[in-house]
Predict the 3D structure of the following.
Amino acid sequence: MSDPWVALTAGADPVARGRVLRHAHEAFTSAGTVGRPVRGVVADSWRRSARASVSPDTTAHVDLADGDLGTYRAEHPLAPAMPLFRELMGAYARDGDHLLAVCDARGTLLWVEGDSGSRRRAGLVNFVPGARWAESAMGTNAPGTALTLDRPVQVFAAEHFSRPVQPWTCAAAPVHDPATGRLLGAVDITGGDGLAHPHSLAFVQAVARAAESQLALTAPRPAQGDTLRLSALGRDEALLLVAGRKMRLSRRHSEIVVVLARHPEGLTGDELLCALYEDESVEPVTVRAELARLRRLLGTELLRSRPYRLTAPVDADFTAVERRLGSGAVTAALSAYTGPLLPASQAPAVARLRRRLADGLRASLVARRDPDLLTDWARAPWGEDDLVVWRALAGVRPRQPGVQAQVDALEAEQGG
């Protein structure tokens, strides 16, 4: 096959191909073997699905109910692109008995539109708004696998890991924030065997690129005094968007901007010294030198002194997590949490905020007792040794392979 990302070459027999794939799927789910007829991208996805303990008979879990879903969709960065998605794909979906679907970066479906009969049939497998279709939750499927690989992918019939989904064929492409490159979600076209064609993959990829172009054109252009956008979760060097210019901050400048973002009223030099350094012998001149370098980078109009403060409001990724936790939107908070805040930082104020954020999110996940959300945290790099979450996961999924073994190993290691 010339293109490994396309499920069927033009002219191939979908019935014969589907039959071969069903046999291969049965062989994998029963014996763990995967043979040559299966595309490499699908074989790798099946293996990831098995490692994530996805059942081949699973159906999707609805994470967001109507109230939470409406609020979350309205605030999602892909909401401004929905008119374009409908314009480019809506008629195609309705006339072809297909579905247009858009999901967030965690694989939660936000919109599912198109042919009414197809929507009813898709509802039987919970391919509905608010349902989670991440690969780690549902196994191989186009939107979930496209998010995992961060590239367009097509999934045909029995290539789906979940048997109830195997009557469907889908193609999906990721959509990114044009300013930061951050993964926002994916756009998907789902239907029958007729979508198993190279054109459907090219189509959905073109739609994703068009959406990114529109987001770039319609995004508000920051001017002097407008909101700064700060990304500091899961990275040691923060990214700051200033007046349309993206800059990577040094580790110390990242700490300073995070601390000042938490204190819009400003801080004195001594207060910043205590916030940034554990060593009491550090001289105030050290902080002044760092602030002088940061002022040259940002400009004197954005960083003022007496007290030291940022003159523009800061829209930070960690404050978005806090807001969502505060409103009880745990799923949305987890979707915004891309890792610990400046994980390598030892600045006292940053370390306290990092712990408070992680502890609050962990406590909410444990209280929610949602097995998929707990699994997401436990399987993430920052959750691999989180005994509290692994114990909670064992409580709601006691038979999930590997969970109790991980609890036992962590208890032995941590003396718990």
About this structure: The radius of gyration is 24 Å. Residues 369-416 form one domain. The chain has three domains: 14-218, 221-353, 369-416. The mean pLDDT is 88.
